[in-house]
Amino acid sequence: MLNTNLFLHMCCYMLTSFLCLFSAQVNAEGKTSASIDNLMTAQQHVILKRCKQWFDERKIDVLVSGTVRPLQVRSYEHGFCIDGEIDKNDTQKLNALFEGVKKHDQKLLVIRSLGGETKAAIAFSELLSQYNIFAVAIEVCASSCANYILPAAKNKMGKPRHIINVPWWRYA
Predict the structure, then answer these.
(1) How many distinct structural domains can be found in the chain?
(2) What range does the domain containing 80 cover?
(3) Are the CB atoms for 86 and 114 separated by under 8 Å?
(4) pTM score above 0.70
(5) What are phi and psi of 58, to 5 degrees?
């Protein structure tokens, strides 16, 4: 018999894999669209560009050096950039992003993360699910990022040829 937790993770894996391979955006109603350009406001396009530039400055070297990249966040009027591995000490930093944000305002969340501590990611995903967030995974969204954070957003998208990965070795 398939346990419920594993089933939910399998569903998240299938959804995020679909997003990664086809670069389709999926909203809360299950509707899809093939182009990110048609889904974001002009301000959100600016945030996406700023986040990409910031990510380029913070090159991912964790796969080469084996060192953990600490979580860093940037906040803008219409969205947020999150880069790095989530640690249990990052909960306050992530919660602070939503201070003063109205639950119905659409915000863009651009994330690049290799994952991190499960409890912190779950706590952030529970907060994230209460807001109107459009999440875009850039370059890599693995482990806790793919398991909890990306699925918690109301609308989500993975860029083509970018890695969105749920680690199945944990369930073997």
Answers:
(1) 1
(2) 4-171
(3) no
(4) yes
(5) -100, 55
